Amino acid sequence: TMAHSKSLVVLENFIGGTFVPCSSYIDSYNPSTGDVYCRVPDSGKEEVEAAVKAAKAAFPIWSSKSPLERSQILNKLADLIEHDLEAFAQAESKDQGKTITFARTVDIPRAVYNFRFFASSILHHTTECTEMATMGCVHYTSRAPVGVAGLISPWNLPLYLLTWKVAPAIACGNTVVAKPSEMTSVTAWMMCKLLEKAGVPHGVVNVVFGTGAKAGEALVCHPDVPLISFTGSTLTAQRITEKSAPHCKRLSLELGGKNPAIIFDDADLTQCIPTTLRSSFANQGEICLCTSRIFVQRGVYSEFLSRFVAEAKKWRVGNPSDPTVDVGALISKEHLEKVRSYVKKAQGEGARVLCGEGVDSLTLPTGNQKGYFMLPTVIAEVKDESCCMQEEIFGPVTCVVAFDTEEEVIKRANSVKYGLAATVWSSNVGRVHRVAQRLQSGLVWTNCWLVRDLNLPFGGMKASGIGREGAKDSYEFFTEVKTITIKH
Ligand code: NAD
């Protein structure tokens, strides 16, 4: 009906500094109500072609600006997003299902900080120089932006992860074509509205909305896009690797995880339990860094388990816009079904579900009955070979198992295809270092979780990715180095 269509948010692509309507659209759902509330352009080759063309045209001017000029523009953009922080947070929560509290305190502040961080770090890079006196030569390296960067981001931390790519890409002098997840495109579109005011020249940031199969793949296959920065699933990364191979593209791949927490007998449980609850269930468990395998040493196993389950039951699930709610809605109906199916499989294999899905009842407010909600779920007595211990579930589900020795737990923690993040809990400094060294994981947090210094490398081993992001790492990814020799 007209009344219905009027209330829909309709997004447009942002190409060459202009909002452009698309010939077809995808429905986007509000995960907390199950209603379609937004229409996202269903872009394809044609739209990607136009965006790449605009980005290519903008490259000569943008890349020749000084780092300081670019830095000032990034800072301005950060200020503008921060000024609208509440509107961005509301939009992110509605679009993604995450709690308003999480969007307000994590997603949007981090998006702002991503711009400030790279606005600053871009000013502090130096390059190498070496002398070869016997040959009368000096060698030095110079770094230059690569060209049009293709940026593809997922739905779990929409603006946070998109800006973690846009900021370093443009700070380095590249121009970009970004493709956010078709399920969470609203905040990227809102950011486009601020670009002109921030002083970002037309064509420097282009955003093309649509599905991975159409818009994403058109970007990956475009001959004039020499680098692709991708965050998403391992399966999609394999496809992107194949599709980009004929062009020898530079790839940065930030993928899934099956992250262990290792809790030794001497761990401080008063710190460990609340942090491990957060690491398991924050953002509905939809963070690549979330813990989903908790190994607890035999001596504290039963105490840990009873305290952990008692606390998990206190997490409130409900309307994401209610600031007292801890767990919002999962991204989609399909995803909710998938996450639930893992709990069923575990039960079928004889594991014990101690709280949550299928065990406790969930009461939802009237307006949220059709939302994609699920209680934080703790499963015990799961076999290491079980799909629940091997595959990324990406929901509020965590498995708790017992172990005896350090040697044993390292082996078990490493026996998955992923290698993104791990946490180690122990008050023995020697053990903490030993275990951290031997874990196959790009990030190891000991006695804490998700404490980040954006300067340092972020990324995964094994099926969790290729490459690292961070001050120096992103700079290196988004620039091409050249070695120049001068004979005097
Ligand atoms: P996804 O791989 O399904 O989609 C990610 C993005 O890729 C989306 O924009 C999607 O439209 C696009 N895409 C899909 N198919 C494509 C194709 N053939 N060509 C080009 N683009 C394509 O992932 P998702 O479900 O959106 O996100 C969840 C996944 O992301 C989880 O596995 C999670 O662990 C991972 N993740 C990793 C990190 C990290 O930093 N390592 C951070 C967040 C999320």
TrEMBL record:
Subcellular location: Cytoplasm
Main localisation: cytoplasm
Statement: the UniProt record of this protein carries the keyword Ribonucleoprotein: no
Biological process, per Gene Ontology: retinoic acid metabolic process
Catalytic reaction(s) noted: 2-aminomuconate 6-semialdehyde + NAD(+) + H2O = (2Z,4E)-2-aminomuconate + NADH + 2 H(+)
Family note: Belongs to the aldehyde dehydrogenase family.
Protein name: 2-aminomuconic semialdehyde dehydrogenase
